[in-house]
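Question:
Now give any protein.
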Amino acid sequence: MADEQNSETAPAEPQKPNPSWERVQLARHPKRPHSRDYIEGLITGFEELHGDRFFGDDQSVIAGMGFFEGKPVMVIGQQKGRDTKEKLARNFGMPKPEGYRKALRVMRLAAKFRVPIITLIDTPGAYPGIDAEERGQAEAIAYNLREMARLASPIITVVIGEGGSGGALGIGLANRVYMFENAYYSVISPESCAAIIYRDSGKAPEAAAALRLTSNDLLEMKLIDGIVPETDGGAHLNYEAAIDALRHTLKQGLKELAGQTPEQIIQERVAKFRNMGNFFSEAAL
């Protein structure tokens, strides 16, 4: 009986820290700065453009032209929304095909005038609904990847929160890719990964660690070009500091790309993504 009582009252083992999962939670924080916050803090004279000229206007994607540090830029951002009404209108930041087609339309406009393009990624993933599939979700993303690879304008991408799967990559094929310190960028969400691998979505923290989705992980693997620092505790605690940090990063990235010809910009972008990953020959194995 004593042994049974001891086993029942024995303290639970303390959980080990999981920095990857902690970063995922910070990336999803409801008060974290969204694309609209950065646009308002960094871009002057911003004029939003609407519609994809095929189907409609996807409000989960904000796109328009303005001035960054006095120079014209095209800005495209994924927007989640704050209150319930806006979240529904923005589809919780999950673009449909018309969102990606709108993004590409304004990117082509920017390339026509040789204006730099800035994209802000913050999405759990592309919308997986039936209506999106009926209108060619996969084709829209794939088409964006092909066309972004050969745009003559310099492209800078920043993952400001969640960077989920092809939904993020659909506006993320860029010359420079940066991440906020507490953002994440992954081929799949931790919950979906856990449901597939462990048959239990509750094991999302373990999946997050295995996916190596943090900014430090991706910088180590040379999949991104730099990390935008955040205030201790997360960007939601200090919007001004987050905006200033992004301003510094964008200025540096645009400066590095300023002297390149359109041909050099395209060649560098293609080479950047071709060099990602590890490849082994049968002889090496």
